[in-house]
Amino acid sequence: MILIGFMGSGKSTVGSRLAAMSGIGFMDLDDLVAEEAGRAVPEIFAAEGEAGFRRREREALESLPVGEPLVLATGGGLVDALDEPVSLRERGRVFWLDLAWHTAWLRLQGTEDARPLLAGASPAQVQELFLRRRPGYAAAADFRLRTDLAGAEQVARMIMVASGRGHGEGDVG
Ligand code: S3P
Hints:
By secondary structure, this protein is α/β, with parallel strands linked by helices. It has helices at about 10-20, 30-35, 40-65, 80, 85-90, 100-110, 125-140, 150-160, and strands at about 1-5, 25-30, 70-75, 95-100, 145. Shikimate-3-phosphate binds near residues 7, 41, 75 and 117.
């Protein structure tokens, strides 16, 4: 189960709920990138630029075994880093966590230190990125779920159902 979507869409929060519900291991691709680089995401951007980060992101994805169950939360720009969404699909069903721009913007307030693309960017620039990425998310995803209309627990349950893993209420089977 692979979670994609813009920064602030709740990929990590929903992903950890989903992992707890399903008993499947959880991984955050940003954490894997940081671990392999030996430094935090903002430091990778500062030292290697966005291109360096994207290369690391692709490599981290490709290093994950295909065919093993995993709940994977990805970074919001992963779809930009991939030529084809096929490398995502072969690793599981892809869920786009979507939300209204204004909700995304509100959620991102105060997170500039952890998210280098936000540092120094105007709301209009971030909104432009939000809109520009939508077709990429749409092309990569098997399912789209709104995360501003339901809580993380509810979204995780919907993903369980869509994955054929019961109703997300303990009847995992
Ligand atoms: C990015 C999103 C971040 C992180 C990096 C770049 C992006 O992850 O990968 O700062 O390009 O949208 P989150 O979506 O978890 O914030």
